[in-house]
Specification:
Elements lengths: L1 E9 L2 E4 L2 E4 L2 H21 L4 E9 L8 E4 L2 E3 L6 H7 L7 E6 L16 E4 L9 E6 L3 H4 L6 H16 L27 H7 L4 E3 L2 E3 L3 H4 L20 E4 L2 E5 L1
Parallel strand pairs: 1-4, 1-7, 4-13, 7-9
Antiparallel strand pairs: 2-3, 5-6, 8-9, 10-11, 12-13
Helix pairs in contact: 1-4
């Protein structure tokens, strides 16, 4: 089993032009609970080929800037999380970095216009060599539909598919977004799990080919491989255990 190291940055507050909001404890807990289900989901759907070792860091500062996406939409790009990225996620520290951020205030309906609940980019120097994904806050019921942890898995897969495509393993069109085009359907009980299972085992049929991430791809290692799973890059930070990971203040 390849170990994929992930860091979740939690931004409880946002203070940007036109929008200011702080997540309540229940809001943060709901997002963390969802993220905590993601590693088991990744292991299950990959047939045990990948294990996600994660840690959680809570940003001490509000998110104070957002990056334009076009059409009036904004998102917290690596430029906006740079202080935490450079301190807690320098190059070579993590395979993947995630950010949970306050995008909407359910009480007032005020929100930041953005491109989606979750957004992701491939691993580049911009994100210090890690895949990078952001997920906005949501109501508790939204986190639970249809599969807990699926939103994190979905955004993570965009970056992961790019990694293995770069190693010569062909992905289906639109990788994690390609379920419908490949003939799969979302179900009320399993979401897109049938598609993700085949994507994560290299069994998505496109024409006469089976595409995706086969076991041989996972066994080439993560972004950090052959670096061993060593001491946490958060060593020295105040931290506490959370679902097999760690949770710290940054």
């Amino acid at each position: 089993m390849v170990i994929w190291r992930a860091l979740l940055l939690v931004y409880r507050s946002i203070d940007v032009t036109g929008f200011r909001h702080t997540l309540g404890e229940d809001d943060v807990a709901a997002g963390l609970d969802s993220f905590g289900r993601f590693p088991a989901l990744a292991a299950e759907l990959s047939g045990g080929e990948v294990g996600v070792a994660f840690e959680v860091a809570h940003a001490a500062r509000p998110l104070r800037s957002l990056t334009p996406m076009g059409d009036g939409m904004l998102w917290p790009s690596p430029d906006d999380t740079r202080a935490e990225l450079d301190r807690l996620a320098p190059p070579g520290a993590w395979d993947s970095v995630f950010a949970l951020w306050p995008q909407r205030d359910p009480a007032t309906g005020a929100h930041v216009p953005t491109g989606g609940w979750g957004l992701a980019i491939r691993a580049t120097e911009w994100s210090n060599g890690a895949t990078y994904a952001t997920v906005a806050n949501a109501d508790a019921g939204v986190w639970a539909r249809p599969v807990m942890g699926e939103v994190w898995l979905h955004e993570w897969l965009h970056g992961v598919c790019d990694v293995f495509a770069g190693r010569g393993f062909e992905m289906p069109p639109r990788d994690a977004d390609g379920g419908g085009e490949a003939g799969y359907a979302q179900t009320p009980s399993e979401g897109w799990s049938a598609y993700y299972r085949d994507l994560m085992s290299g069994r998505v049929q496109v024409g006469d080919r089976l595409l995706g991430i086969p076991p041989a791809a996972w066994r080439t290692g993560s972004i950090l491989t052959p670096a061993p799973l060593g001491p946490s890059p958060l060593a020295g930070e105040e931290a506490e255990g959370r679902r097999g990971g760690r949770s710290g203040q940054c």
